[in-house]
Design a protein that fits this description.
By secondary structure, the protein is mainly alpha-helical. It is built from eleven helices and no strands. The radius of gyration is 24 Å and the shape is elongated.
């Protein structure tokens, strides 16, 4: 299905290795195992939605327990050490050189997502105490979000031009940045538009912030094979720290200027 010839070559190489492993185990056990069609469809959909790197590395995670199993039977079947080496090194290296467009533009998505989370958790927290009117906060947030997403898209376009990377299209980069920004803002503003209690809306916004960070960090940790916990905790600390600081500024502004709405 891959249109990229380099990717097609890598995928075929991985599939050949996996078929050799299957043939080996079939020879050992004498059992023929049919493909699990449901699993095949699942990983195909994941590849189409989230990219090849995410789908393949998620498949590889399913084989983590195999390494210990290979070690436990290596005395009886020394051949399994070659399979273990394939699983741990060869295939990971192959996945690492895939040309994955979604992963190539991950930087642009992070730019939009991070800025929206940091700026708007702070902005909405400050507005919550300064105004106390959910409709005003929600509409103000949306207007600011649209304007800021256009600004971020322009920044993404200029940034990708400066990078001079052949694998990045400046227009696509700008689009990924702007869309990531406005979608994040829409999720954060949503609690303010569906009910009247400002503090419940603030709590809902902070919960959504943590969930967005968790989902995206999980995607990056799988696709790029990096640790989840450190990246997640640092993003949460920054976003919630800015929100807390902005909430305090909102209290100060309301007291100094005597704003009542």
């Amino acid at each position: 299905m891959s249109k990229d010839e380099k990717n097609k070559e890598i995928l075929l190489k991985i599939s050949e290795d996996e078929k050799k492993h299957y043939d080996f185990w079939q020879g050992v056990t004498g059992v023929e195992v049919k493909p699990n069609r449901r699993q095949v469809k699942k990983y195909l959909r994941l590849a189409q939605l989230f990219g090849l790197s995410f789908s393949l590395r998620l498949m590889e995670r399913g084989e983590e327990g195999a390494s210990r199993f290979y070690d436990s039977i290596a005395d009886e079947l020394p051949e399994v050490l070659a399979i273990k080496e394939d699983e741990e090194f060869h295939e990971q290296q192959l996945i690492g050189i895939l040309n994955d467009e979604r992963l190539n533009y991950a930087g642009a998505i992070v730019l939009g997502l991070n800025d929206a989370l940091v700026e708007f958790t702070g902005t909405l927290a400050g507005l919550t105490f300064a105004f106390g009117n959910n409709k005003v906060i929600g509409v103000t947030g949306l207007v600011m979000g649209v304007a800021a997403s256009l600004s971020m898209a322009a920044s993404g376009y200029l940034s990708s031009q400066e990078d001079e990377r052949d694998d990045l299209n400046p227009v696509k980069s700008a689009l990924f940045t702007g869309v990531a920004y406005i979608v994040t803002v829409a999720f954060l503003v949503f609690p303010y538009l569906i009910q009247d209690n400002s503090y419940l809306a603030l709590g809902g916004m902070l919960v959504i912030t943590v969930l967005i960070i968790a989902v995206y960090t999980y995607y990056i940790s799988v696709a790029k094979n990096v640790k989840f916990s450190r990246r997640f905790s640092s993003m949460v600390a920054i976003s919630l720290g800015v929100a807390l600081l902005s909430f305090g500024i909102g209290m100060l502004v309301k007291k100094v200027f005597n704003v009542e709405m």
